[in-house]
């Protein structure tokens, strides 16, 4: 697929990967992507573009939640992957991992090409709170990454006819190699996962999943492979509780959305409140006024 506009590029990338936004300062923009869906869970895409920036924001995530894991295997040019306040610089032969469930930005100052691998988070070994520490970091240039890159580069999405068995075998190899890379990195970073790091990871997970109505202290504990009691103890160190933190952060996010002009029902839905009456009562307890009053105040300030 060849694209000659930034709007078209945002649409193409959203369709191929996960919903996102794009921008570019280049006066003439050209880009292309060729994708091979190996299995319903695993895809391989060759990407080439001019100077551009693609990003997945909190708002896009709230509207289109996904848990995909993406790996950029950079082939030419340069770029930067930003996530969780970190940056991984990309150059030919390097690779970085990023997670669609949290905001990220991919910036490319000029022409570039890469192969992007996409698979669900559940396909790789459980890494608990260590996982967030792996994103937006250069992946180690060891044997598994060399093998993964060689395999990915050898597949030409434009030339490969549909062979389900062969595609499934390639997908299995991709998942195995990604698992080996992540396991090696997790083993390296595990000693650093003290109580403070775990506490930060728990908060970050909550902040990244405010729109999910399933979000609860139990889900937070289960996702990070720790007990609910430990989660409660870690929040108690700050005189807080996980349930109170979730509710407070949802309400703070809803308040920001209302101030930006979102209707009350949409601000509630985008922050995990699907019962508007409950949302209004909780909002009034937190801020002393119902969300409709803040919405009117915001509209008056803009008018």
Task: Give the strand line-up of the largest sheet.
Answer: 1-3-4-11-6-9
Q: Number of DSSP strands?
A: 11
The total count of helices amounts to 11
Overall 3D geometry?
A: globular
* Major sheet description: 6 strands, antiparallel
Beta fraction: 15-25%
Low-pLDDT runs of 5+ residues are 187-193
**SSE order:** EHEEEEHEEEEEEHHHHHHHHH
Per CATH, which architecture of the largest domain?
Sandwich
Distance between the termini: 44 Å
Would you kindly provide a written description of the structure presented here, covering whatever features stand out?
This protein has 303 residues and is α+β, with helices and mostly antiparallel strands. It folds into 2 domains: 2-191, Jelly Rolls (Sandwich); 195-302, Arc Repressor Mutant, subunit A, CATH 1.10.10.60. It has helices at residues 6-16, 58-63, 143-154, 164-189, 195-208, 217-223, 228-236, 242-259, 264-269, 276-287, 291-302, and strands at residues 2-3, 21-23, 31-37, 43-49, 52-56, 68-76, 79-83, 86-90, 95-99, 104-108, 112-120. The chain has a 6-stranded antiparallel beta sheet with strand order 1-3-4-11-6-9. Strand 7 and strand 8 (86-90) form a beta hairpin. Helix 8 crosses helix 10. The relative contact order is 0.10.
Give a nutshell description of this structure:
With 303 residues, the protein is an alpha+beta fold. The protein contains 11 helices and 11 strands.
């Amino acid at each position: 697929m060849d694209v000659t506009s930034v709007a078209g590029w945002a649409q193409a990338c959203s369709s191929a990967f996960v919903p996102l936004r794009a921008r570019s300062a280049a006066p003439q923009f050209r880009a292309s992507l060729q994708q091979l869906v190996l299995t319903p869970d695993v895809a391989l895409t060759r990407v080439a573009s001019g100077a551009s920036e693609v990003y997945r924001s909190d708002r896009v995530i709230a509207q289109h939640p996904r848990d995909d894991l993406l790996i950029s295997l950079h082939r030419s040019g340069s770029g930067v992957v930003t996530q969780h306040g970190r940056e991984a610089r990309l150059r030919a032969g390097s690779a970085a991992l990023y997670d669609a469930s949290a905001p990220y930005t991919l910036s490319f100052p000029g022409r570039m090409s890469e192969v992007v691998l996409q698979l669900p988070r559940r396909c790789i070994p459980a890494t608990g709170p260590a996982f967030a520490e792996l994103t937006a970091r250069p992946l180690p240039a060891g044997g598994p990454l060399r093998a993964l890159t060689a395999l990915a580069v050898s597949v030409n999405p434009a030339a490969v006819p549909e062979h389900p068995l062969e595609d499934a075998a390639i997908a299995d190899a991709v998942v195995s190699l990604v698992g080996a890379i992540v396991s090696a990195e997790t083993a390296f970073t595990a000693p650093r996962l003290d109580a403070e790091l775990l506490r930060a990871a728990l908060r970050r997970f909550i902040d990244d999943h405010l729109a999910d109505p399933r979000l609860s202290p139990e889900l937070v504990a289960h996702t990070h492979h720790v007990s609910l009691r430990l989660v409660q103890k870690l929040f108690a160190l700050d005189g807080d509780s996980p349930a109170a933190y979730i509710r407070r952060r949802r309400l703070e996010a809803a308040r920001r959305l209302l101030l930006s002009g979102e209707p009350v029902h949409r601000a509630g839905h985008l922050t995990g409140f699907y019962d508007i009456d409950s949302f209004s009562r909780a909002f009034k307890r937190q801020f002393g006024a119902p969300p409709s009053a803040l919405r009117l105040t915001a509209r008056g300030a803009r008018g």
